[in-house]
Amino acid sequence: MKKWVYFFDEAAAAEKSVGGSWDGVRGLLGGKGAGLFDMTRAGVPVPPGFTLTTQACNEFRRTGKFPPGMWGQALAALKQVEKRTGKKFGSSSNPLLVSCRSGAKFSMPGMMNTILNIGLNDEVVEGLSRLTNNPRFAWDSYRRLIEMFGATVFGLDDEVFEHPMGEHKKKKGYQLDTEMTAEDWKALVGIFKVEYKKHIGEDFPQDVYKQLELATQAVFESWMGKRAVDYRRATGISDDLGTAVNIVTMVFGNMGFDSGTGVAFTRNPSTGEKTMMGEYLLNAQGEDVVAGIRNADPIANLSTHMPKVYEQFMKITSRLEKHYTDMQDVEFTIERGKLWMLQTRNGKRTAKAIVKIAVDMANEGLISKADAVRRVTPDDVDTLLHPQFDDAARKKSEVLAKGVNASPGAAVGQIYFDADTAEKMAKEGKQDVIMVRPFTKPDDVHGMIASKGILTSEGGATSHAAVVARQFGIPAVVGASAMKIDMERRLMIIGEKTITEGEWMSVDGATG
Ligand SMILES: Nc1ncnc2c1ncn2[C@@H]1O[C@H](COP(=O)(O)OP(=O)(O)O)[C@@H](O)[C@H]1O
Ligand SMILES: [Mg+2]
């Protein structure tokens, strides 16, 4: 029978089945899965688990059902996990909980689904609470499961659960989730179950195998979710690849203040500097860091909080960098002082960081000079030639209108509505000028060249304005159709706002 399921320590078998190439393994197991297999093989602490292949996902998409044999293999693998961990799925005396994680060949961060804490129900939660002597942790985990399950499997809006949680916190006068007690979480689980039934028409499933099955289906289905499809369109990733599903033994960062969760880049992804950059939260789980529900600590603080763990973490991540010969973006969890690695991948970075890291790695002897050069694409060079807004500035700014990001770079200046005036203000008035037009023509080029930025209300990425802007390295946004330009009155109207000639404005040619 076809093998649909691979255990994390079966890297060799997975390699063999795709003819030996690591690229093939990434295709079969997804990038996240391949990383987990690789780390397991290297002796890095990864919680035991297994991966359902992208082929299984594609079969599921084709037929609407799991392929014959797949679920049986998954259940057998789950038995293996039980053996290795000494825990039992669905048992209330020593429960095994798992996560069900998406992971395609190319990383699509946040575009598909993951459900944590699968295996909890009304009985298991009591057992977990007794076993750990930590009811707060057990009830917190259970409410997270109901939340993620509802959102992922049935597409419930976040508000369905966020709202009652906000109300509860307000009633109690709490600011932070960490102020919630065991009793609070338990009360919330009750409320969540009522909301769940109200919206879905049935009770939250108490059968833990049903939970796992529905979660797996939902992750497969998330491959064709709108978010994922849009992301693939924008990045040129093929629809045919499918996502793998990784079933991973849960480790808990929310067991108290000797536990935590975090994410880190092995080098600075915005400047490329060779310093670990990351954040962690104590007594928290999964995406709490990314979701920003509390202020996270910079990773350097871990060296005082938990020096041993920090040292081990630095060793592991430096090994991973050497192994992949690239900057890594990692996720980790600390459960009662023990470090677990949950993900590693080549980190996304700015053009500036691409160059700096490539040069540094060549100097460190990690890669050859030729490799370093190959890592910088013409697009990266293009972006580098233009000044950029940083993300903090982007967040703070008020967006007036959106258009096509025709030519990358940042520009700030006073706006003028024709080429002659634009040129005059730039040359004689020594102003920084943004030229604003409905569209541009060859006659306008002199004004464009004199400007710091270009903005049009019509046209697309291949319009005259766009082509010229790129040719001369001038930041430009074109086709910002919300702008109504009134040449006679020398002003433009965007929604309720009127902006007159000479006012200041900024153009972000990188984002549009
Ligand atoms: N078995 C597990 N134990 C603890 N945390 C987990 C487990 N599986 C996933 N997580 C955490 O949950 C979050 C989301 O999981 P992940 O599958 O990596 O989603 P994404 O692809 O969106 O990053 C991450 O912070 C991850 O580290
Ligand atoms: Mg992740």
CATH topology tier name of the domain at 391-508: Glucose Oxidase, domain 1
How does the overall form come out from the CA principal axes?
globular
CATH class of the domain at 391-508: Alpha Beta
Q: What compounds sit in this structure?
A: adenosine-5'-diphosphate, magnesium ion
Structure classification? alpha+beta
What is the terminal separation in angstroms?
A: 51 Å
Strand residue content: 15-25%
Give unreliable regions as ranges: none
Instruction: Please tell me how large the radius of gyration is.
Output: 26 Å
Main pleated sheet: 6 strands, mixed
Number of helical stretches of at least 4 residues: 20
Q: Quick check: average pLDDT?
A: 92
The H-level CATH homologous superfamily of the domain at 391-508, spelled out, is Phosphohistidine domain
Number of strands: 21
CATH architecture of the domain at 391-508: 3-Layer(bba) Sandwich
Strand order of the largest sheet: 13-17-16-15-14-21
Helix content, binned percent: 40-55%
Structure description:
It is a single chain. With 512 residues, this protein is of the alpha+beta class. Among the domains are: 251-349, D-amino Acid Aminotransferase, Chain A, domain 1 (2-Layer Sandwich), CATH 3.30.470; 350-384, no CATH class; 391-508, Phosphohistidine domain (Glucose Oxidase, domain 1). It is 44% helix and 20% strand. The chain is built from 20 helices and 21 strands. It has a 6-stranded mixed β-sheet with strand order 13-17-16-15-14-21. Strands 1-2-7-5-6 form a 5-stranded antiparallel β-sheet, with helices on both faces. Strands 10-9-8-11-12 form a 5-stranded antiparallel β-sheet. Helix 6 (135-154) runs parallel beside helix 8 (182-200), helix 6 (135-154) crosses helix 9 (208-222) and helix 14 (351-363) packs across helix 16. The radius of gyration is 26 Å and the shape is globular. The relative contact order is 0.08. It binds adenosine-5'-diphosphate and magnesium ion. The site of adenosine-5'-diphosphate (ADP) has 18 residues, from strand 5, strand 6, strand 7, strand 11 and strand 12. Magnesium ion binds at residues 331, 343.
